[in-house]
Amino acid sequence: MGALGLPLCGVQRRACVRGGGGGGGGGGEFRLNWLLRGESVLYPLPSGEEPPNTLPDPPQHSSLPFSEQIQHPTASLIAKVATAQDDITGDGTTSNVLIIGELLKQADLYISEGLHPRIVAEGFEIAKEKALEVLEQVKVTKEMDRETLIDVAKTSLRTKVHTELADILTEAVVDSVLAVRKPGEPIDLHMVEIMEMKHKSETDTTLIRGLVLDHGARHPDMKKRVEDAYILTCNVSLEYEKTEVSAGFFYKSAEEREKLVKAERKFIEDRVSKIIDLKRRVCGDSDKGFIVINQKGIDPFSLDALAKEGIVALRRAKRRNMERLTLACGGTAMNSVEDLTPDCLGHAGLVYEYTLGEEKYTFIEKCDNPRSVTLLIRGPNKHTLTQIKDAVRDGLRAVKNAIEDGCVIPGAGALEVAVANALVKHKPNVKGRAQLGVQAFADALLIIPKVLAQNSGYDPQETLVKVQAEHAESGQLTGVDLNTGEPMVAAAAGIWDNYNVKKQLLHSCTVIASNILLVDEIMRAGMSSLKG
Amino acid sequence: MAGEVVTLQLGHYAGCVGAHWWGLQRCPPEGTELSHAALLRAGRDGCTPRLIALELKGGVGPLGRGGARPEPLAAWRGDVANYAEPGTGTALRDRGQRPGDASADADCGSGAPGEGAAPSAGSSTQLWSDYLSVQLHPRSIYVLQQYNHDGDSGRLEAFGQGEKLLQDASCMEELEDRLHFYAEECDYLQGFQVLCDLHDGFSGVGAKVTEVLQDEYSRKGILTWGLTPVTHTVADSQKNFYRVLNAALGIVHLSAHSSLFCPLSLSGSLGIKPQPPIEFPYVNYDASLNYHSSAVLAAALDTLTVPYRLCSSRGSMMHLAEMLSFSGRKVVAAWAAVPFPAVRGHSLPDALCAHQQDVPWKLLSSCKEQKVSRCFAQSVVLRGVCKESPTSCPGQQPPSPLHACETAEQVLQYYLHTAFPGAFSASHVLEQPCVTLPPYPRIFSPLLSRQGFLPDDLSSYSAAAVESIPVLTSLQSSPVLRTLLCDLCKDLQKLGTRRCASFFAAGVEEDDFHEALQELRTLSQCYQMGFEADNSEDESDSD
Questions:
Q1: What is the pLDDT of residues B456-496, one digit of tens each?
Q2: What is the ipTM of this complex?
Q3: To the nearest whole angstrom, how far is the Cα of A523 from the nearest Cα of chain B?
Q4: N or C: which terminus of chain A has fewer CB atoms within 10 Å of its end residue's CB?
Q5: Which residues, 6 or more positions from B49, have their beta carbon under 8 angstroms from its beta carbon?
Q6: Where is this region: Disordered (chain A) (predicted)?
Q7: What pLDDT score was predicted for residue B207?
Q8: Chain B: nearest CA to A68, how far in angstroms?
Q9: B209 and B78 within one domain
């Protein structure tokens, strides 16, 4: 490992690596030591059972905010780049960390021999331009049909969860994005609700074409299962509360008081009866169901009245579910009961309640044309749920990226090998010592196939040489087959990465690595002048 | 039947007060006057507080004694074997599970061996989870991983940081989910009581939380208590400035979004200059310990919140708020006598007669007391005194007009009428005292008997642990608050924005600050008494 002491090189070891002074060895220990004053870094790494086809990403949504807690300036900077990468593309965070670390390490080899960082940075810049060119050349523009999207999602998800689960998630993720996609509009992933349920095993995770609410009807007489139901979504208070105007009660006797309270109650009862009227109108004598989902409260009296009419009522629906409800079932959310018409009702084929311990869930399924769907994540414990949730989020982003890019890039390290090869060929065209920067860049990129090989238990160097030879021979984009350790044609195996992830990677890694090198130089100069 | 209330504890000190408060409610005596359903939810396995507690990383220890329930085994279909840990803890846990259980009460009364002693005020009471004696629902404690409770770095110091925390979508979603969990199952939700730390960044968190509550649950009461621990010696002036700024911004925002806001602290002042902490005649507490100071506040809080927790009354949190917050006076002051000085064997009229001149309570709102006792409106609660029937026999001339009243309520009402002529006073009298069993600290003077009464003759006193105390409290909309708010305004003006540049870098805009200052001033003017001759103060305000 380099003298830079970057904790992140430890990714290869797949363990929790203590950073800071973890580097050791090498000639350039004096450098970047201003960076090493920070405290140690813990970089938790996932350890799935199955060798992934690309790099493992750190568990993001839960742990990326940890960039704020890293005190080591370089590490914190790199963690921030990873966070930015996650925000923009949703994937590629580990690659980011690896490449920056490796760029610094390669640069250090040259710098310790006296090369000025400025020249290395120049070389990096030239190499980046060339790499982007290669990226444009190798990208595969094709129609994003379900097959391709499943390949993309599979590539992303298999790095995060084990294969069996990944395959289940893949289909669910792709289908959910396809369901919420509207032609000509950007995809809104918020329309895919992710619902956790601590129950059964993780392979029971499913896509619900509709909505799951984590509460149930609060009246014992309401049906637990309704088929072919009208759905009324509304935001109307159906509970007796003190009116907003602080009118004091003025009464002389108990009867008078009762009368006043009744008058107030009447207000709510009128609202309830309007809903009941509508139910009678649309359902008539048929055995269709009627569900009321209200954002405000419904008190026991109102629930009772509704239950008598065979209406199932849910109270206090979450605000963020209100929009989804109308998208999933159709209809419009009503803010008053004055102008209720059959047009504002939605429809669902099946609504049922599911009780799990203390918690109740209401499934609204079999919607006609759902524009909002739910991924129901199941797992035996909190940890598994979080893991799946993160994986699903990344999968969704990957599918969305692929649809928006309209093109994909062969994965499994194939791109990196191709770019490195192209850079070595390009090197003679570069004048002067900047060549060395280009070389460093080419070498640094190869960390990706190397780590892939190592993670799957093969000798990194041997595998890399094989892959490079195969690439040079066939001219095809060759990556590492993690099951055999042999080269394979990534495109044929259906391993696809996102185009914009790779593009973002090349851009940000170069910039950050160059900046760290240059700032380091300035800091060192500053320190020596202080001493003198 | 009182409606349900959801409690939120924002911050560490709020956690301390909360921990004691839940402990006080643990084992009520027979014939409960207070409704348990108001604050506790009956789950499948026992009662747990309807509570959401926000804490920072490291602020909650292992919840060994009470703590979070083990995860439900709903999904498991196989055999279940239970292994109970013998020894300490189990008895307390049982008590927490069944607050009304008679056997548990007997257990409390006799003091099980090894359980009777309050935790010594040492290392074992650093965190509030150390003296939490009830079980919490697994959804109750929400630890914010972004900031540290302890240590030098990563502290939640400024109002702006707190606000920003809740702008994060995932954090907000989590909070909304938890709120929804408790609110959805309530049949008659009457409102929320928010215990919020004022001295650190949690005032910003509170500002956001109350905003969400107001937005989402309109027409429900939001009663916010702004808590501050006793300020230690001012070592770090920067920290002191932060504290004042947080408190000021907190008061402005929290009062704007709540139905009623009450600053509650044993500290003598919220301003830059520290004042000695408030002292009670029969309490010897160590002001530097959160464990002690929060216990006093919890006893006061348990009594102050009585009006909307009564089984019998129809009063709700909203009623209480509307009664007190008349004409924009949303900030109220809390007064309390912990314990209420009553001599054993004396009846309520006797006890009150002893304090004809001066009400024996102390102000808990970090402000200098004024001798003039005047207020606009107040809600007074007295508990634990009136067990003894009036001593006056029929036929005899009652020794004072107080003795002529028939019911305890009337006695208190009459007394308040003479003490605060012209003010609107609502009063409640409760038989049940405030039960101060361990882990409540033993902070009471040895003069007090087991039931917290003074002995008839001072020579004889038993050094028995005090098991319950009578408490008198009042929630007052009073002119004292004008002084509090004005002083804070002056302090802020003196401070200016330049000396705390880093505070404003953390998210509060300077314009917002000046706006808040203006609002604080407007708020303080609400408490001006028409006939008050305080022109001098006005002049100093205008410059």
A1: 766 666 667 888 888 999 988 888 888 888 888 888 888 77
A2: 0.76
A3: 25
A4: C
A5: B7, B22, B39, B40, B41, B134, B136, B137, B140
A6: 45-65
A7: 92
A8: 8
A9: yes
